Amino acid sequence: MFEIWGPILAGLVALVVGGELLVRGAVQTAERIGISPLVIGLTLVGFGTSTPELVTSVQAGLSGSPGIAFGNVVGSNIANILLIAGVSAVIAPLVVARVALRRDAMVMLVVAVVFAGVAPFAPMGRIAGVGLIAALVGYLCFVIHQERQHADRGAIYDKTVALADADPGLAPPHAPHGILMPLLLAFAGLGLVVFGGSLLVGGAVSLARAFGVSETVIGLTIVAIGTSMPELITSIVAALKRQGEVAFGNVVGSNIYNILGIGGTTALIAPSRVPEEIARFDAPLMVLVSLLLVVFATTGLRITRWEGLALIAGYGIYLWKLWP
């Protein structure tokens, strides 16, 4: 049994530690060469907690395991809403900033609908990958432009704040005088993330074979929950600090990155078709829970503890339905 679970646990640890080192080194390098803190926050730091999902999905796609690759994307989004937002709301009700609801939550819902609408009918090939990545770049450029013009901050900024709160070392300014150490830190983190992703994918495939469970189920559950650990940690820290708007923005921002960035990169590097069971059930469910989050957030611009409990219960039902 250790031969199966050992690589999975080691891979998750390497992904989380490597992801933090990668972001820390990249942020310090960007500061050193004079990139603005806002751009750094909305791109490098904002993308940081999604690094485990990115590497795992790409490696799974390259290994011929689309169930793990796209199960990780869809499963992470479902876990972000039902589990992470639910746990955060139970700790402290999530106050929702208007801009995060009006702009970013709507974008999250739209990209979920687009993914779910395309998945059953067309393979996630390189054209789809380019389209998703282009949409992410366009969204980030729009957000950077808007947030330079106005004081209001949205979900991607909140995702950055959540990560910086959980790891104060990522809060600028903190760049060292030289550029060599940040670069070494970034490459060391990248190496750890790639190594961890390889271990996790290999362990997940072995687990599926050992228990007679489909790779898709493993991707939607164990892999998705494992790679969402950074989001869970940062959202819980934000909730404990009574920064509910940050926890909400962290979930919404992560879901946008997952579909556009991770789904797009996976399709670009390792084109494949979304498994039928994901396209038929889990992707539409992702749309449904995204809509549920928006509805909860719209009522009084907060997600209450009771609504958080309902989200957690929903995740329990989902796992019970999914796992044979």
Structure description:
81% of the residues lie in helices and 1% in strands. With 324 residues, the chain is an all-alpha fold. It has one domain (2-322): A middle domain of Talin 1 (Up-down Bundle), CATH 1.20.1420. It has a two-stranded antiparallel ribbon with strand order 1-2. Helix 4 runs parallel beside helix 12 and helix 5 packs antiparallel against helix 12 (276-298). It starts with a helix and ends with a helix. The chain crosses the membrane at residues 6-23, 35-58, 78-97, 104-121, 127-144, 183-205, 217-240, 247-269, 281-299. Its main location: membrane. This is K+-dependent Na+/Ca+ exchanger related-protein. It is found in: Membrane. One of its GO terms (biological process) is intracellular calcium ion homeostasis.
Short account of what is shown:
The chain is mainly α and 324 residues long. It is built from 13 helices and two strands, in the order ααααβααααααααβα. The chain has a single domain, classed as A middle domain of Talin 1 (Up-down Bundle), CATH 1.20.1420.
CATH class equals Mainly Alpha
Please count the beta strands (DSSP E, at least 2 residues each).
2
Q: What separation lies between the terminal Cα atoms?
A: 19 Å
- For the record, what is the CATH homologous superfamily label? NCX, central ion-binding region
Radius of gyration: 18 Å
What structural category characterises the helix and strand content? mainly alpha
Mean pLDDT: 83
- Residue stretches low in confidence (pLDDT < 50, at least 5 long) are none
CATH topology: A middle domain of Talin 1
Transmembrane segments: 6-23, 35-58, 78-97, 104-121, 127-144, 183-205, 217-240, 247-269, 281-299
Protein name: K+-dependent Na+/Ca+ exchanger related-protein
GO molecular function: calcium channel activity; calcium, potassium:sodium antiporter activity
Membrane topology: Multi-pass membrane protein
